[in-house]
C-alpha cells in the first residue's frame, strides 16, 4: 500500500479488497466446517481441524494487519463525510469494530481455539450418544479455560461481557440478566397456570413418519415461506444449523426422527428463517463485512419468528395441514386440525431445549445462561456441571434429565463455540421476534390472513425490507429502534404468549 | 523468522510449518471445488469462483515468499547431509522445485487463471448438453491465451513444454511426441487387424440398469479392491474425478447412465485407482508437499491399471461376475461370463475417449495432444477447433462425431485446466501401468490367481510398497527405474495389448 494510496477513495478500495479476501477465507472455513458436519468421512477429522484452524488464523492475521488499522484511522474524515447509512460508511464502521475487536486477540490464540473447537465437537458427537460425559470433560475444561482467556483480551465488568458482546454487540451480563429477571417474573406464573391444566394429548406427533416424506414436506414448507433452494440446499447433521458461504449460497441442515414429526419440521423452519435472513441481504453487500446477520439475537429473532410465531400459528396450518394430512393419511387422517394445532403447542416441563414449547423455552435458556456464568466465574467446576444441570432442571422445571446426554451434553454450543456468549441470543431473539412481528402486523394487518391463504410474501417482504437487506449495516439496537420505534422490551413477547396460550388452554393468563 | 532461525533444524521446522499452511490452503480450495462440482446450489457460482481464486492466490503468495526462497538456499548443506530418501531431504528437494516453478508465476496471474477456470467450467457444464460451442468459444479463447501466458513465464523449446513439465515433471513435447509416434506405429496395425474381425456384440451392456444398484455394486467393487470409504466417499458429478483433502480424506465421484453399465462401473474403478494412490501415501507425509501423487502420468498409471489391466481382466470377473449377475438377474442372467468379458473388451472406432477400449484409447489422446499443440502454436484457431476435431476423428478413427458435444466439447480438461499439459498423462499412465504390472507379476506370479479368488491385497500391497507410500518423494522417472529396473517404454503396454486381444479376437497380433 502506502505510496499509491493517496486518496481516501484509493484507501477505501484497497480496504474493500482486503476485507473481501478475509470474507473469502471465512467462507472457506465455513464450507470446510459444513462438510465436516454433514458429509465428511470419519478419517478426515484430524486434517480438517488443522485446515480450519489455518484458514481462521490467516483470516485473523489479515484482519489485524496494522496497515488495515492505519487505513481505518485515515478514513475517519471520509467516513464522516458520507451518510451514516451509505454502504461505504457502514463498511468502514463495521470493519473498524471488527478490527478493534480482533486486534486484541492474538492469532496463535485463534488457531488454538479453532483447533480445540473442532476436536471437541468431534468428541461430543461420539460422547453424547454414548452418554459419556467423562469423555468430553477434559475438552470442556480446556474450552472453559480458552473462553476465559478470550475474555481476558478485553476490559470487562463481568468475565462473560466480552463473549456476549461478540455475539450480541452492545449487550452485557447486566442487561441480559435484567431481561431474564423480568421474563422469569412474568413467565413463571404463566407456566404454572398452564401446567395446572389437563395436559394436551400430543401423541399424534409421535407415530412413525417416514424420513423420505418428512424431508419432502419440510423442503416444500421451507420453499413456500421463502427459502430459495437455488441459492441453498438442505442436508442432515447431528445438530441442525444454517451457514452462509455467500449471499447466494446459504445452506441449512436438519435432523430427522422417524418417530417424532416435530423434530425435522420445526428445525427446518427454524434454520430456513436464519437462512432467509442471509439470503435476503442486498446483493451489493456480498463480499463485504456487511454480508451477515447483524447479531446472534437478531438472527434468532428471524429463525424463531418463522418457526414459532408463524410456524406454530393456527393460520399457518390452515394452509399446510391438508397437505401434511395427505402425505401421512394413516397417521394424521383421523387427527383434526384443532387437535394437531394444540399438539404442536403443548406446554410441558420437558428436558430438551430444542423440543421445548415457546412458553418454557426461555427457562431452559436461563438455566444454561446462569450455569455458564457460574463456570466462568469459577463458582462451578466442569466436573460438577452434570449435577448442577440436573439440580437446576429439578428446581426450575420440576424434572430430572434421564442422563447426561439429555443433560449437560444436550446442546452443541459449549462443545463447538465458547462457554458463554451464545445462549442469550435465543432469548433475545424470542423477544425481538415478537417485537418485530407486533410491528409488522400493525403496519400490515392483513398478514395473518395472507399466511392462512399461503401468501408468505407479505411478511417476508416486510422483514426483508426492514431487516434482511441491511445485513450488518445497523446494529441490533438501531434496527429495533428504527423498525419498532421502541427499545427492546419483554412486553410484546409476553403479550403474544398470553394471547395465544389463553386461547389454547382456555384460561385467563 | 530471521533472528530466531539460526540452526538448520529451526529453519527446516519453520519451512515445514509454512508448507503445511500452504497445503491447507490448497486443500481448502480442493474442498470448495469438490463442493462446487458435486453439491453446490446454482446461485453459489459467482462467489465460489472468487473464493477459490482467493485461496489459490494466498497459497501462491505464501509459497513464493522470498523468505522461503532464502531458507531453501540456506538448507542446501542440511539437505545434502541427509540421505536422499529421508523425508526431510525429500521435503526440501520437492519444496525447492515447487518454489522455483511458482516463483516464476505472478500471483495476480494465478488469481486470474483460477477465476477464469471456475467460470469456464460452469459455462461448459451448460454448453455441452446444449451442444453450444459458441457459448464456450470466447472462454476457451481466453483459456488458450492464459495457457500461453503461463508458458511465457518459463524458458522453453516448445510452448507446451512448461505445461507438460508441470503435470509430468521431466517430460517435454519432444519426449511425448516420440512415445506417441512409437505407439502409433505399433497400434495402428493392431487396430486395423482387430476391427477387420466380426464385431463383438456388446448389447448386453446397454440395457436398463437401475442407478441404485449400479451405485451399490460400484461401491462394493471399489471397497474390495482397496478404496477405503472410512477415508473417502463417492458422489455424483458431470465428469468423474478424484480429489484429496488429506491422506485420510480422498474422495471420488462418478457419473451414472442407467442405459450403460460400463459408465459408472469403470469410472468408479478408475477413480478408486487414483484415490487408492493418495490414500496409500505414508501417514507421516500428511501436511507436507510430499503428500500427493508424483505426476499426472504415475497417477493415471494407477487409475488405468486398476480400471483396465485388473478391472477388464478375465480373472477379475471370475470373482465379481456372479455377484453382478445376481444384482441384474433379468439383464445378465442369460449372458455368459465369456460373452460379458468380450463385451467389456470390445474394440471399436468410437467417438468418446472415456468410453474407448484400451486399444484405441491412446489414439484418442493423440488427437487431443496434437490439437492442443496446434492451438498453442497458433496454427489452429479456437473457432476452427470443432472442424479440426472432426477431421482428425475422420482420418484417424474413421468416424465423425455426431455433434460438438461429442466432439470438441467432449472432455472437461480444456475447460477447467489449461490448454495443453494434461492429456499426455493418460497415455503416459497407460504405458507406466503396463510396465508396473509386468514387474508386479514377475515378482509375485500368483497375483492373477489371487485376483480371480477376490484377493486384491497382494497387488495392492505391492503397489503401495513400491509406489503409493512414497507420494512425491521420488520423481516418475526415479520410480519407474527403481521399480521396474528400466526406463519408460512402450513395449510392456504393446505386449499386454497383443496377448490379451489376440486371445479375445482369436487372431495373430
Description:
The structure is a homodimer of 509-residue chains. Chain A has 509 residues and is an all-alpha fold. The first copy, chain A, folds into 2 domains: 2-103; 173-505, Neurolysin, domain 3 (Orthogonal Bundle), CATH 1.10.1370.30. The first copy, chain A, is built from 22 helices and 3 strands. The first copy, chain A, has helices at residues 8-38, 45-63, 66-74, 76-81, 87-102, 107-130, 133-152, 161-167, 173-195, 211-225, 261-279, 296-310, 314-327, 329-332, 337-343, 358-377, 385-397, 424-443, 447-452, 457-466, 476-484, 491-505, and strands at 234-236, 242-246, 249-254. The first copy, chain A, has a 3-stranded mixed β-sheet with strand order 1-3-2. In chain A, strand 2 (242-246) and strand 3 form a beta hairpin. In chain A, helix 9 (173-195) runs parallel beside helix 22, helix 16 packs antiparallel against helix 18 and helix 18 crosses helix 22 (491-505). The longest helix of chain A is centred in the first third of the chain and has 31 residues, at 8-38. The first copy, chain A, is globular and about 75 Å long. Chains A and B meet through helix 1 and helix 2 of A and helix 1 and helix 2 of B.
Amino acid at each position: 500500500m502506502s505510496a499509491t494510496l493517496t486518496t481516501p477513495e484509493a484507501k477505501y478500495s484497497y480496504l474493500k479488497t482486503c476485507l473481501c479476501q478475509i470474507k473469502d477465507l471465512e467462507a472457506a472455513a465455513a464450507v470446510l466446517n459444513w462438510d465436516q458436519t454433514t458429509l465428511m468421512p470419519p478419517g478426515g477429522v484430524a486434517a480438517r481441524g488443522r485446515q480450519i484452524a489455518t484458514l481462521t488464523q490467516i483470516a485473523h492475521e489479515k484482519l489485524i494487519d496494522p496497515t488495515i488499522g492505519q487505513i481505518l484511522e485515515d478514513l475517519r474524515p471520509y467516513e464522516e463525510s458520507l451518510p451514516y447509512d451509505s454502504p461505504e460508511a457502514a463498511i468502514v464502521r463495521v470493519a473498524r469494530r471488527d478490527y478493534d475487536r480482533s486486534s486484541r486477540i492474538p492469532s496463535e490464540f485463534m488457531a488454538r481455539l479453532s483447533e480445540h473447537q473442532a476436536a471437541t465437537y468431534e468428541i461430543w458427537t461420539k460422547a453424547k450418544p454414548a452418554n459419556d460425559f467423562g469423555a468430553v470433560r477434559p475438552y470442556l475444561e480446556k474450552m472453559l479455560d480458552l473462553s476465559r482467556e478470550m475474555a481476558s483480551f478485553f476490559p470487562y465488568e463481568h468475565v462473560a461481557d466480552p463473549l456476549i458482546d461478540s455475539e450480541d454487540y452492545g449487550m452485557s451480563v447486566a442487561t441480559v440478566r435484567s431481561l431474564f429477571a423480568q421474563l422469569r417474573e412474568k413467565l413463571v406464573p404463566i407456566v404454572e397456570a398452564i401446567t395446572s391444566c389437563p395436559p394436551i394429548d400430543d401423541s399424534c406427533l409421535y407415530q412413525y413418519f417416514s424420513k423420505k416424506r418428512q424431508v419432502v414436506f419440510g423442503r416444500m414448507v421451507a420453499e413456500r415461506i421463502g427459502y430459495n433452494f437455488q441459492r441453498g440446499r438442505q442436508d442432515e447433521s447431528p445438530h441442525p444449523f444454517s451457514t452462509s458461504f455467500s449471499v447466494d449460497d446459504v445452506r441449512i441442515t436438519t435432523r430427522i426422527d422417524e418417530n417424532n414429526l416435530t423434530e425435522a419440521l420445526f428445525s427446518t423452519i427454524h434454520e430456513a428463517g436464519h437462512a432467509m435472513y442471509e439470503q435476503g441481504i442486498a446483493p451489493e453487500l456480498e463480499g463485504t463485512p456487511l454480508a451477515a446477520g447483524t447479531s446472534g439475537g437478531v438472527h434468532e429473532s428471524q429463525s424463531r419468528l418463522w418457526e414459532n410465531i408463524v410456524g406454530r400459528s393456527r393460520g399457518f396450518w390452515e394452509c399446510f395441514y391438508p397437505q401434511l394430512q395427505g402425505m401421512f393419511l394413516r397417521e394424521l387422517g383421523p387427527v383434526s386440525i384443532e387437535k394437531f394445532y394444540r399438539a404442536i403447542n403443548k406446554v410441558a416441563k420437558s428436558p430438551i431445549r430444542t423440543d421445548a414449547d415457546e412458553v418454557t423455552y426461555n427457562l431452559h435458556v436461563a438455566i444454561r445462561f446462569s450455569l455458564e456464568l457460574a463456570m466462568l466465574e469459577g463458582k462451578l467446576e466442569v466436573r460438577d456441571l452434570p449435577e448442577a444441570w440436573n439440580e437446576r432442571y429439578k428446581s426450575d422445571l420440576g424434572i430430572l434429565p434421564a442422563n447426561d446426554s439429555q443433560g449437560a451434553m444436550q446442546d452443541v454450543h459449549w462443545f463447538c463455540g465458547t462457554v458463554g456468549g451464545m445462549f442469550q441470543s435465543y432469548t433475545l431473539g424470542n423477544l425481538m421476534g415478537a417485537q418485530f412481528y407486533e410491528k409488522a402486523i400493525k403496519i400490515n394487518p392483513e398478514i395473518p390472513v395472507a399466511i392462512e391463504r399461503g401468501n408468505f410474501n407479505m411478511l417476508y417482504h416486510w422483514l426483508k425490507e426492514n431487516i434482511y437487506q441491511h445485513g450488518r449495516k445497523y446494529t441490533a439496537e438501531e434496527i429495533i429502534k428504527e423498525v419498532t420505534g421502541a427499545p427492546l422490551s419483554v412486553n410484546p413477547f409476553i403479550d403474544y404468549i398470553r394471547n395465544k396460550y389463553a386461547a389454547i388452554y382456555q384460561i385467563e393468563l
